[in-house]
Amino acid sequence: MSKALDNLLLYAGVVKRVGYTLTFGMLNAGSRDELLKLYNGYNGHHQPGENVPVDPFIIPKTDVFELFGNDNAAYEGVYECGFGHTTEFELKVISNLVKKWNPQRIFEIGTFQGRTTLNMALNSSSDAEIITLDLPAEELASTKMEIEEGEVRYVKKEVSGERFIGHPAASKIRQVFGDSASFDFNEYHNSVDVAFVDGSHAYEYVLNDSEKAFSIVRKGGLIIWHDYTNWPGVWTALNELHQNDSRFRGIRHIGGTSIAILTV
Ligand SMILES: C[S@@+](CC[C@H](N)C(=O)[O-])C[C@H]1O[C@@H](n2cnc3c(N)ncnc32)[C@H](O)[C@@H]1O
């Protein structure tokens, strides 16, 4: 009887809490955050920085690389895909591209937690250099152009590059900070073998970052863009570049991913 009463009280407490969260609670940032967490949990997403069990699924994974061969890369953290990350498959595709291009110098625009940075480091030669540019949270209000509201959460983080900090491969990684629209790319002109464009997803920024990537990548080098299929700004900017700018005519979308690539 007392167990039934306990359950009833618990149920009443949950109903009260949910009722509050969905009404007056919406005025409160903590409650909104709680709701977002609930939603993300429901959808299998995780918050950036949240401790996620590695591969929480029961059924073992496979993918086209494993089924049909040609997966030559090594990875870490592939199964921890969350907000702001490349998907598991995309991370494998990028790692394989890096392995194939065997770059001496990689430049990434948009570090976030450094999950892709780390995997690019793991798949490049021991003397390769990976430079990764990130917008410091303090500069959010003073960017040269406007970034998308939906990506503010990726800028506002306590640590940029937390996935590789302290990792043995971090010795190959150099972090630089600034706004990609005002950052001085001159030092890297024509010297980069692989550029990964994954900073702001706003149309103007994608145009800016694509131009900057083109200026730093050597002839025969590779530009990789992320989020072509799922951010309107990226989609529109890359479509326009492909159609109107002969330098970008060779862009190709890798099917089954949101990745686009160009051999310069
Ligand atoms: C989607 S996250 C990058 C994810 C990361 N490349 C990965 O694969 O895990 C976007 C990153 O771009 C950064 N960013 C946004 N606007 C930027 C700007 N104007 N200049 C430089 N970095 C920017 C954000 O701080 C964030 O770290």
Layout of helices and strands:
Layout (H helix, E strand, L loop, with lengths): L1 H21 L6 H14 L21 H5 L19 H14 L3 E5 L5 H8 L6 E6 L17 H4 L17 E5 L14 E6 L5 H14 E9 L6 H13 L7 E2 L6 E4 L1
Parallel strand pairs: 1-2, 1-4, 2-3, 4-5
Antiparallel strand pairs: 5-7, 6-7
Helix pairs in contact: 4-5, 7-8
The chain binds S-adenosylmethionine.
S-adenosylmethionine binds next to helix 5, strand 2 and helix 6.
Quick tags:
264 residues, alpha/beta, 2 domains, 7 strands, binds S-adenosylmethionine
The CATH superfamily of the largest domain is identified as Vaccinia Virus protein VP39
In the CATH hierarchy, the third-tier topology of the largest domain is known as: Rossmann fold
Q: What proportion of the residues form beta strands (DSSP E)? A: 5-15%
Each distinct ligand: S-adenosylmethionine
In total, the number of strands is 7
Report the mean per-residue pLDDT as an integer.
87
Number of helices: 8
Distance between the termini: 73 Å
For the biggest β-sheet, the strand order reads 3-2-1-4-5-7-6
Proper CATH architecture of the largest domain: 3-Layer(aba) Sandwich
The low-confidence parts are 41-53
Order of helices and strands: HHHHEHEHEEHEHEE
Shape: globular
* Structural domain tally: 2
